[in-house]
Design a protein that fits this description.
Number of domains: 2
Number of strands: 15
Helix content: 25-40%
CATH superfamily of the largest domain: HUPs
Shape: elongated
CATH class of the largest domain: Alpha Beta
Order of helices and strands: EEHEHHEHHEHEEEHHEHEEEEEHHE
Number of helices: 11
């Protein structure tokens, strides 16, 4: 059952909840562990589990020029949280007025609307104006209002904590296989197909040019092995993706292009979700168009071999929360 989706504290039903609060950008394995603990605590107390998250993300309001790109869209975030068997998601609009709330004022609002019996948070949890509230602040407020606080330690991989920041760095460097390990699913981009230069068609490799639907983190320039979903269809099509500035043609604008193997489809104005499987190589300059075509043929052979050996269980189950977004969340107002 998808998570119920609420857009304001006033929409919440008057019943007790076990809840957590956070950005949950990417809903990575550290988030998934915390959500699992939330689900367990809610079940033990026979109450609903609730995730309170924000849109825009706080950094996008407080430091817009420095805000990092997102690891998923808001719709994907809600769907991924629901796929972790959470009962409900509350998305609060974050703005400058919201940011001015003291920790005490914020929790007072949450208590009045959500009637928490327990808050489950990470050990680095901060909240309220200037991030002035800490886990200790939350415990003090729990004593005052009568809710428990469970603190969940961060999850490490290779002695380093799993975090959205670390994953963004990996994606930016093109290390998408390690990023996928931290996410618990392949990294993906979703975008709409727009008109391009049609050079790929002349090269024998027609491509769909993507315009991303959100300010998503884009992997490093290069050639990638990918699988593609069209308009949320359940089937995944094999393909190659190119990210870069097309140095052979001396373009300046960075592009994201997708070539599907074995099928020719009119993808203009269709929406694609691209799963990144592996990076084959970085972007390169070639002395001629013929040299570029020969390299593309080699890339295609490598792509086919990699996709043929993915094995059973691919993609990981959580991936389908993004691919099946039409079923991802149910509005609480019906």
């Amino acid at each position: 059952m998808p998570a119920l989706l609420y857009r304001a504290l006033s929409e919440l039903p008057r019943q007790p909840h076990a809840l957590t609060i956070g950005n949950f950008d990417g809903v990575h394995r550290g988030h998934q562990y915390l959500l699992g603990r939330l689900r367990e605590r809610a079940a033990e107390q026979a109450v609903r589990s609730l995730v309170l998250t924000f849109d825009p993300l706080p950094a996008e309001v407080l430091r817009p020029q420095e805000a990092p790109p997102r690891l998923c869209t808001l719709e994907e975030r809600v769907a991924l949280i629901g796929a972790c068997y959470i009962d409900a998601v509350l998305v609060l609009q974050f703005d400058e007025e919201f940011a001015r709330q003291t920790p005490e004022a914020f929790i007072e609002q949450v208590v009045r609307a959500a009637a928490p019996v327990e808050l489950v948070v990470g050990d680095d949890f901060r909240f309220g104006r200037g991030r002035s509230g800490s886990v200790d602040t939350l415990r003090e407020l729990g004593v005052h209002y009568g809710f428990d606080v469970t603190v969940v330690p961060r999850v490490d991989l290779d002695t380093e904590p799993i975090s959205s920041t670390r994953i963004r760095e990996l994606v930016s460097a093109g290390s998408i296989e390690i990023a996928a390990e931290l996410l618990g699913r392949p990294y993906s981009l979703t975008g709409d197909v727009i008109e391009g230069h049609r050079r790929g068609q002349l090269l024998g490799y027609p491509t769909a040019n993507l315009r991303l639907i959100d300010r998503l983190a884009v992997p490093a320039d290069g050639i990638y092995v990918v699988q593609v979903s069209i308009d949320g269809s359940p089937g995944l099509l094999p393909g190659m993706a190119y990210i870069g500035t097309r140095p052979v043609f001396q373009d300046q604008q960075r592009a994201i292009e997708v070539h599907l193997l074995d099928v020719t489809l009119d993808l203009y104005e269709r929406r694609l979700t691209v799963l990144f499987v592996r990076r084959l190589r970085g972007d390169m300059w070639f002395p001629s168009v013929d040299a570029l075509i020969e390299q593309m043929k080699a890339d295609e052979r490598a792509t086919r071999e990699i996709l043929a050996n993915l094995g059973e269980g691919w993609p990981p189950p959580l991936t389908w929360a993004i691919l099946n977004l039409a079923e991802g969340a149910v509005s609480a107002d019906g």
